[in-house]
Amino acid sequence: MRWHHMTGPEVVQLAQQTDVAILPVGCVEMHGPHLPTGTDGFTAEKLADMIAEREPCIVLPPLFYNINHQMRKYPGTIGVPPDVVKALYEAICDEAARNGFRKIAILICHGSSEIIAYHLQNVLFERSRREDQKPKPYSVFVLWIGDALRQLRAEAEELWDSPPEKVGHGCEMETSLVLAARPDLVKLDRLELLPEGEGPYFSKTVQGATYQVDWIKQVPKGYIGMPHLATAEKGERALNALADHYAQVVNQIRKYHPERDV
Predict the structure, then answer these.
(1) Domains in the chain: how many in total?
(2) Are 106 and 112 a contacting pair, CB within 8 Å?
(3) Cα gap 69→91, rounded to integer Å
(4) So what's the pLDDT on residue 193?
(5) Where are the alpha helices (DSSP H) in the chain?
(6) What is the domain range of residue 182?
(7) What is the Cα–Cα distance from 2 to 61, expressed in whole angstroms?
């Protein structure tokens, strides 16, 4: 079901069977000394493949280039301006629709990217409501893995050995996902255990609010939590649960009619 593995005629044939495309979205950023900089993209691609095995859809080539302002202080990070990313999302959606896939699910595995995707949704919605602009011939759905992981954490607490406060960037959960998706790129032997097995080194001054912080001061090693507890089995269980969940969402997307909601 991977678009970039198929011939042109095969893409046309699949478009006659389903009009849903998944765009796996990751990034290029440091995830500590033990995970590849493409961690989010590899997770998104693997999850998209598993969704497509459960529900008919095409998987677009994964998007690794993304917004990444704070992580640019760490080595290996590539950050792209938000307006460029939004324009890229729209251009990819335009091309997917031109090829017959008019329902595009943006599967986001990199934090803050959902904000840009929501902005694209708003632009498309406003364009559809204005008489002086021709609406785009497609619909965009945002699948933010962070929401699904929080739900999975609540429903399957026994899956993880580290406590909730030690879950985050490059942690046991994220490391397990990569061990399941790309085990050849994980280097657990390079881990430098954090004090008391956790990070960040100090908490934010203002709790209960979102604001910019100098994250490299909070997490100088580029990761938090207890990734040494990660296993491929945990990652596989999590990915299967996520794929089951999103397959149900894609099934609803396939049945979606924009005339009803817009």
Answers:
(1) 1
(2) no
(3) 22
(4) 74
(5) 8-15, 39-54, 82-98, 113-129, 145-155, 172-181, 215-218, 232-255, 258-261
(6) 3-261
(7) 7
Separation CA 181–CA 183 (nearest Å): 6
Neighbour order of strands in the sheet with 139-144: 58-59, 20-25, 103-108, 139-144
- pLDDT score of 117 more than 80: yes
Helix (H, G, I), strand (E, B) or coil at 108: strand
Closest CA to 235 of 20, 42, 2: 42
Q: Quick one: angle between helices 172-181 and 232-255, nearest 10?
A: 80
Average pLDDT rounded to a whole number, residues 255-259: 88
Cis omega (within 30 of 0) for bond into 36: no
Question: Over the Cα atoms of the chain, what is R_g?
Answer: 19
pLDDT at 86: 93
Are the C-beta atoms of residues 60 and 5 closer than 8 Å to each other? no
Nearest to 187 by CA among 26, 27, 31, 29: 31
User: Other C-beta atoms within 10 Å of 95: how many?
Assistant: 12
What single DSSP character describes residue 28? B
pLDDT digits (tens, 9 = 90+) for 168-216: 899 999 999 999 999 999 999 999 777 654 555 667 788 888 788 888 8
* pLDDT score at 197: 46
Under a CB-based contact definition with an 8 Å cutoff, are residues 54 and 17 in contact?
Answer: no
CATH code where residue 137 lies: 3.40.50.10310
